[in-house]
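Title: Prediction job returns without error message
Component: structure pipeline
Severity: low
Priority: P3
Assignee: unassigned

Description:
Job completed but the reporter wants confirmation the result is attached to the right record. Sequence as submitted:
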Amino acid sequence: MVTRLELVAEKLDGELALRRRELSDINLSAQSSAGNKAATLRRAGHVMAYAHWEGFIKLALTSYVAEVCRQQRAIGELRDGLRAAMLSTRINVSAAENPFTLAIEIVESVRGHATEKFTLTPETLLKTGNLTSKKFRGMLSICSLDYLDYYATKENFIDEVLCGRRHRIAHGGPQPISADDLPKTIKRVLSLCQMVNDQVIEALLYEHYLASS
């Protein structure tokens, strides 16, 4: 019998394979072209690389949170990021105007909902615009997943290269992408996606979402 974990792993592996193939195809098309056509394909390829970065990270993390929800664990059993994510949906937004009132409401929520089952809508929890390293770190924190050293070493790439160049291209700016830039960008994006994929599967396998893990 196929387990839930195997289904999630198969889904994410399949998605990653599709994204890898599409990025490989556009890179090959750019390499086999010349002049303005090649330049245009490289710019399009960079935007696509960013799209797959944002798309896969959202998919992997929403899949992770959805699986944690299916476990029907009590909020009190979970790590702080997931607890906070759940409890934040119960906090009165207007209380944020008064720090003392907000603090009381948070304490009461923690005490009152510790035994309640963890449930929320992952898609609304993990909304984001341009997926910078800061926003990526925040999404991992919400999911109670560690921000690995590998991610920290790629912050400049994520912010200045992947997001920065994509932003300029998307807004019609004259951002050139060299013949060497595109394959390097694709390789790094796929490496980051694979790392997140592996981290999500490992976290589900070893129940890293539990406070006691």
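Comment from assignee: result matches the submitted record. The mean pLDDT is 90.
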